[in-house]
Amino acid sequence: MINLNAWNAVQPFPLVQQNAACVAGRIQSPSIPYNRRSTELIRHANDGTMDVDTVVAKINDLYVSNDLAPKDLCDFYLLYFTPADLKEREFQYYWPDANRTNDETITRDRIREFIAEHENRGIRM
């Protein structure tokens, strides 16, 4: 696990580098059982029974409360911060090529990709 206090002290742009590492899958997370709650939330976002922004916020909370694990929730952690940055400025450092016109589409696409990936691994969504 990365000690963010030490990371922030050494790196000039820690958040950008941490996010790049997360997207590239280089941050190692402890092996924990698949989080049933996250699959329920993602399913609700996909079928429209819950607001996508609410689901992403809840998944972000799960991810952070589990010390940035499981790794497959990292994308939702990054997508949680993207809209807030885009409200303040034209760019963000969390998701490649996300902007004010496509951030919601990117999040919905990632939800669908997540479901497909997990169904292919035999995890019922």
Describe what this molecule looks like in 3D.
There is one protein chain. The chain has 125 residues and is mainly alpha-helical. The protein has one domain (13-120). Helices cover 61% and strands 0% of the residues. The chain is built from six helices and no strands. 22% of the residues are buried. Mean pLDDT is 79; it is low at 1-14 and 23-34.
Strand-helix topology:
Layout: H1 4-10, H2 14-23, H3 36-47, H4 52-65, H5 74-88, H6 103-120
Overall, the morphology is globular
Count of discrete domains = 1
Oligomer: single chain
Q: Main beta sheet: strand number and arrangement? A: none
Are there runs of 5+ residues with pLDDT below 50, and where? 1-14, 23-34
Work out the radius of gyration: 15 Å
Helix content: 55-70%
What is the beta-strand fraction? under 5%
Structural class: mainly alpha
Average pLDDT for all residues: 79
Count the DSSP helices: 6
The end-to-end span amounts to: 29 Å
Q: How many beta-strand segments?
A: 0
Order of helices and strands: HHHHHH
